[in-house]
Design goal:
C4-dicarboxylate transmembrane transporter activity; globular; about 75% helix; cell membrane; about 450 residues; about 0% strand; membrane
């Protein structure tokens, strides 16, 4: 239990310093390195098995920082930088203003910005069918949907929360989490994903939409949050009307190439964004009457946006990853598993305990996958001992891991979207908290109603 206590104390300290105004990246990185060093001091292994040890616990801690810089900086970080660069480029050439001008006219009939917020949230949830990565989806929505939401009068914190939360509930039947959950439940994938998980997911999204409407309205009023609905007539548009298509090129590309719509042609999100930048540059080049110098000068805004993203977002992701590894390597998650094993509770109580522990682990580590993968291994054995249906335990855990990630100030999606929106991760978590609680309660009730407790 010492490891769990250390993890709890360090996590509380991280929250304290961030609330006090310390730079989140520095706090998370320092706390993560401290946890890794304490891990070595307690005799535990610091590095995952795929990373070779340097032979010293101090340098092993720094070795993991290097790994995260390579892994997140060159992988997910590059995706974020590309999308941020694309968004900056769209703003610079005036494409975002064209979108706002054109879309604001038909949307002006909807007077309530909170009704627009709900519509945007549902659209964002549907996007999760095409983009499996929560952080990737959040960044994509920030680059495309966010400017339009804020222009239509949705407050900045509420708009960021929409972009941060569509992956809170799993819809995609072929996501890795669902495939593993179906296997551990002993059910066919189509039966598990479509007949069992999907109805619960739809109900949870409906409840979260309603909760987001009232919760954001309450917070905006309480905090007197600036909400400025731009007057269409005041928007200065210098770009042609057809530029309105350009900001949506990544989304179009995702559905065409990442969703396997076109047979024999499949591109990942990185290539899709590069293609979108290249296509937009060609359109801009033609619109500027083939003025290559002006086009290349405009592209500088894209590179500057990428550099700003590395400073403001990617380093936060690296720091959050080091902190999460520190919590896991010191054994805090293993201690939570031990608590679940020794609980000795009944069927419903055991389901609630496992769900609660999964949420707690997801909030602490900022990861949706790691807690679920750890706890799902435990569920079949516990279900067998008590004669329970494994799916009765696993379905709430599956959704709880993603819901918990959405209210974690150190999760990749919250860090990335808050960084792009230039607000605190805690502000995002505050906005997502009540909808997530509503979604979690709905998932638990849906499981009790739709999933038999016993085999």
């Amino acid at each position: 239990m010492l490891e769990l206590l250390i993890g709890l104390v360090v996590t509380i300290a991280v929250g304290y310093f961030i609330v006090k105004g310390y730079k989140p990246a520095g706090v998370l990185l320092s706390a993560g390195i401290l946890l890794l060093i304490l891990t070595g001091a307690l005799g535990h292994t610091i590095l995952p098995s795929k990373i070779a040890s340097t032979g010293n616990m101090l340098t092993d801690s720094l070795e993991y920082v290097k790994f995260m810089l390579q892994n997140r900086g060159g992988g997910l970080g590059m995706q974020i930088m590309l999308l941020c660069g694309f968004a900056a480029y769209m703003t610079h050439i005036g494409a975002n203003n064209v979108v706002v001008k054109q879309f604001s006219k038909p949307l002006s009939v909807i007077k309530s910005p909170y009704a627009l917020l709900v519509a945007a949230y549902i659209v964002a949830c549907l996007m999760s069918l095409a983009v499996s990565s929560a952080t990737g989806l959040g960044v994509l929505l920030m680059a495309t949907l966010f400017p339009m939401m804020t222009a239509m009068g949705i407050s900045r914190p509420a708009a960021v929360a929409v972009c941060a939360s569509p992956a809170a509930i799993i819809l995609a039947p072929t996501s890795g989490d669902v495939v593993i959950a179906a296997e551990k439940s002993g059910m066919a994938l189509d039966v598990f994903a479509v007949q069992t998980v999907l109805p619960v997911s739809i109900a949870a999204i409906a409840v979260m939409s309603v909760a987001a409407y009232f919760w954001n309205k309450y917070l905006d009023k309480k905090e007197n949050t600036p909400m400025v609905r731009i007057d269409v007539s005041e928007i200065e548009v210098k770009a042609p009307a057809y530029y309105s298509v350009l900001p949506f090129l990544p989304i179009i590309g995702v559905f065409l190439f990442n969703g396997r719509t076109l047979p024999g042609l499949e591109l990942d999100i990185y290539t899709i964004v590069v293609l979108s930048i290249f296509t937009a540059a060609l359109v801009d080049y033609a619109s500027k009457r083939f003025d290559g110098k002006a086009t290349l000068e405009d592209l500088e805004s894209c590179y500057e946006g990428m550099a700003d993203a590395f400073k403001g977002v990617v380093m936060l992701l690296v720091a959050a990853g080091v902190f999460a590894q520190g919590l896991m390597s010191i054994g805090a998650i293993d201690n939570l598993l031990h608590l679940a094993e020794t609980a000795g509770a009944g069927g419903i109580a055991l389901m609630l305990i496992l769900t609660g522990l999964t949420v707690a682990a997801a909030i602490a580590t900022g990861s949706g996958n790691a807690p679920f993968y750890a706890f799902v291994e435990l569920a079949p054995a516990l279900a067998a001992k008590m004669g329970l249906n494994p799916a009765f335990l696993i379905i709430p855990m599956l959704q709880a891991s993603n819901l918990g990630r959405t209210i974690s100030p150190v999760s990749g999606v919250v860090v990335a979207t808050s960084g792009m929106g230039k607000i605190s991760p805690f502000e995002v978590v505050k906005r997502t908290s009540v909808p997530v609680i509503g979604g979690l309660i709905t998932v638990i009730i849906g499981t009790l109603v739709l999933v038999p407790m016993y085999v």
